[in-house]
């Protein structure tokens, strides 16, 4: 038998308490872990999102990849 796994993402403490209470009420076993990301990585992601919104992106079309990599003969 395959066991389903649910991954829930929230940083809201009230929601975390509600989810834990729900599992307890239904007698569902669960594991809970906290994950954190490297702050430098998070800054880079936010910077990339900002640049995307500002239109500061470089579009590369599939047909141009070989030319860009100087593989075009």
Write the layout of secondary structure elements.
Elements: H1 13-25, H2 39-53, H3 65-68
Task: Record keyword descriptors for this entry.
44% helix; 73 residues; mainly alpha; 3 helices
Task: Please explain how this structure is put together.
The chain has 73 residues and is mostly helical. It has one domain. Helix content is 44%, strand content 0%. The chain contains 3 helices and no strands.
Kindly summarize this structure in a few lines:
This protein has helices at 13-25, 39-53, 65-68. With 73 residues, it is an all-alpha fold. It has one domain.
Query: Residue ranges: pLDDT <50 for 5 or more in a row?
Result: none
Structural class: mainly alpha
Characterize the main sheet: none
Total count of strands: 0
N- and C-termini, Cα separation: 55 Å
Number of helices, where a helix is a run of at least 4 consecutive DSSP H or I residues: 3
Q: From the alpha carbons, calculate the radius of gyration and give it in angstroms.
A: 22 Å
